Amino acid sequence: MHPEIQAKLITAEEAAGLIVNGEVLGCSGFTPSGYPKVVPAALAERGKKILESGREFGVSVYTGASVGDELDGTLARAGIMKARTPYQSHKDIREGINNGSIEFFDLHLSHVAQQVRHGFLKKPTTAIIEAVDVTQNGKVYLAGSGGVSATYMMMADRIIIELNHFYGKGLKGIHDVYIPEETGRRRPLPIYTPADRLGTPYVQVPLEKIVGIVETNLPDSMGNLVAPDADSLAIARHIMEFLSHEKRKGRLPHGLPYQSGVGNVANAVLSCMAHDDALDSVSLYTEVIQDSIFELIDAGKLNVASGCSLTLSKAGQNRFISQIDELRPKFVLRQQEISNNPEIIRRLGTISMNTALEFDIFGNVNSTHVMGSKMMNGIGGSGDFTRNAYLPIFMTTSIAKGGKISSIVPMVTHVDHNEHSTQIFVTEQGLADVRGMSPVKRARAIIEKCAHPMYKDMLTEYLDYGLKHAPSKHTPQVLDRAFEMHLRLAQTGTMQA
Ligand code: COA
Fold it and tell me: Global pTM?
C-alpha cells in the first residue's frame, strides 16, 4: 500500500465520527452489491447513543438502488435515516416510509445522478463508497456496482472509502465510468453494442477529498436464490415461446440485448434462455446481473453482460472471484445513468422484462403502491427500460396471497407505466400481446390470456358493464365500480365475491 493511502487508514468508528447531524450521505451500492458495510453500522451505533442522550441526529441517504441490511437496515432501525432516495426494498425502511417517519423520494434510476448534479436534489455532503483499490493519484476502483458513485464523489465535500478486499483487485477493469457532459452541451453517448466502453475503469478524485479509508473483507449480503417455482417457469416458457414466434414473424432482429429485473422470475427467464436450443447467444444490457448469468456462461451462450451491478449469491460471488480473469472481458459495469440510459436502451433495441404488482385490463401497470397507498420498493429502472425498450414485457403471477388478490384489475390503484408504454403482459396463465390494440381489444386479450380463471368472469362482467354504461366506449371505465375489487379486498380480506 502506498504511504499516502496508508496514512488515510482509519477505523469505521473514526469514519462515522466525521459525519454530523443533518448530512446527506451519497453511498455506493446497487442492490445488495458494492455498498458500504461497516461505516453505516458504526454510524448507526453512534446515532443511537446521540439520540439516547436526548440530542438530535439524522441523515439523508442516497444510494444507487436498494442495498444490503448493513446500510439500509442498520440506519433505519437506529432511527437516524430521515430521508431516502431512490429505490429501496428493505422491510425496515418500507415500514418507516409507510408510517411517515422516513421521507422517500422515488425517481427513475437513470435520473438520479443528473438531478444531483443539477441541484434538483440536495447535494451529498459525504460520499461513502466501497472500492477494491485506491491509488495515490486518486483513482478509485469501485467494487461490485456502479450506481451513482462517480457523481456522489464528484459532488460531495468529502469522501470515505471502504476498501473491501473480498473481491480482490481482480475487479479492476470491469467498470466503465463515465459522466455525461452538462445538459445543453451533451453529445450522443457512443455505445452501439452492449460491450462498448466510453469512460475509464476508475473514478478520478482529488486525493485530498478522501478523508478516510476503512479496510474490510466482507461479501455482499445477497441471499442464495431459491430454485424457480412452477409459476416463474411457466412465465419464462410463455416468454420464450413468444420470442420464437416473433423470430418466425421476422420481427426480432438477431442479437437484441435483454434487460431483466431482479428476482426469481427474471432469473428463471434467463435460465430458460440458457437451455433453449433456438437461442445461440445472448447479450444483456441490463441493471442487475444475477446468478443465472452462470447458466448462460456454462451453456456457452453469453456474448456480453453490461449492467450496473453484480448481484450474486454467496456461491456466485465465490465463483466469480475464482474465475475473475476469464470472466472480466465479458462484463461491463456502468454508472446507472448509462446502464439505464434511454438513448442507449432505445438505440440497442433492448427487450425489457420487469415485474408488476398489478396491471389493469387496459394495460396500465402498478409496480410500486399496494392498494394505491403503501410503498413497496420504488420504480427502480422499470420506467427507464419500459418506455424505451424495443419490446417491453411485464410479468406477474395472476394472483397473490393465495388467490385473495387478482393481479389483473379493472383499474390500477397507482400508475407507474401507462398504456402508451406497455406492449406485452405475461402471467403463468399466458401471454397477451396488445400491440396495436384499442383499449377494449386490449382488455379482452389481457383477461383471456393473463387473468386467473377464478377472476376471469368478474373482469369480463366489468368490461361488458362498462360497454353498456360507461360515458364513453373508448376506454369504458365506470368510476363508481373501477375499484370494486380493491374495496372488497379492504373490507373482506379478499377480492373474491
Ligand atoms: N397486491 C398486493 N400485494 C401484492 C400484489 C398485489 N397485486 N402482488 C404481489 N403482492 C405481494 C406478494 O404477495 C408479496 O408479498 P409478501 O412479501 O408478503 O410475500 C410481495 O407483494 C412481493 O411479491 P412477489 O410476487 O414476491 O414479487 P417480487 O418479489 O418479484 O416483487 C415487485 C414484485 C413489483 C414488488 C418488484 O418487482 C419491484 O419492486 N418492482 C419495481 C421495480 C422494478 O421493476 N425494477 C426492475 C428494474 S430494477
Answer: 0.97
